[in-house]
Amino acid sequence: MNPANQVKELFWAHRDSELAVPMAKYMKDKFPFLGIKKPLREELMKQFYRESGILKEPFREDFVLALWELAEREYQYAALNYIGRSLNKLGRQDLPLMERLITTKSWWDTVDMLAQHPVGTIARKYPEVIPETIMAWAVGEQLWLRRTAILFQLKYKAETDEQLLFRIIKQNAGSSEFFIQKAIGWALREYSKTNPAAVRQFIAQNKLPGLSVREGSKYLDSA
Fold first, then answer.
1. pLDDT, tens only, 2-57
2. 1-89 domain in CATH 3.40.50.300?
3. pLDDT 10s digits, 197-206
4. Whole-angstrom Cα distance, residue 20 to residue 72?
5. In the chain, at which end, N or C, are there fewer CB atoms within 10 A of the end residue's CB?
6. Helix, strand, coil: what percent of the chain each, to 5?
7. φ, ψ for residue 68, nearest 5 deg
8. What angle, rounded to 10 degrees, do the helices at 178-192 and 162-172 form?
9. What is the pTM of this model?
C-alpha cells in the first residue's frame, strides 16, 4: 500500500470528533483536525514505521508531499515526524522542499518545527545555503520564510553564528508583524542561555520591538 494511505487509514481509525473541536480551536480554526493528540500520534507513527519499513529507505519527498496535501492537520504533523526521523538523510537538495512546506498550509506549529530541525540541520551541514537562500528569506516578503530565517539557528547553542543572528534580527527589527517580533524575542532568549552578555549588549544597543525585548530578556535577570 502507498505509505501515505497507510498513515491515512491508521489515523482515520483513531479519529475522535470530540477532541477535534478544541484542537482546531487552539489553532484558530485554520485547519480541520482528526482529534488525535500527540502521544497517540507518536504511537501510531511508530506502528506505521514498523509495518512499512520506510525509515530504511532513502528520504521520500513524495510521501511528505502526499501527507501535506491531506486536509486534517495531524497528517502534516505525521510528515514532520517523518522528517524529524530522517534528518541525517537530508541534503541541500531538500531545502526547496522545506521552503514549499513552510509556505504551504503555514502556521507557527509547522513552520517552527521546519525552521529548527530540517532547515537548521541542512544549514549546519551545508552552510553555503545561508548566503544562497536563507539570507534572501530574511528580507523577503514571505512572513514564514522570514520567521524561519530568524529561527533556524535556534538549536545551535555555542555553534550559533552570532553576527549572522544579530544581522538577521536587525533586518527584521522594524517589522510590526507579531510573528516576526515574537521570533526575534525567542531567538534572543534561546541564545541568551549560551551568551547572556552578548544578548544583553545587543538589546541595549539596538532599537527592538517591545515584545522582542520582553521575550529576549526573560533569562537575563538571572544571568
1. 999 999 999 999 999 999 999 999 999 999 999 999 999 999 999 999 999 999 99
2. no
3. 999 999 999 9
4. 10
5. N
6. 70, 0, 30
7. -65, -30
8. 160
9. 0.96
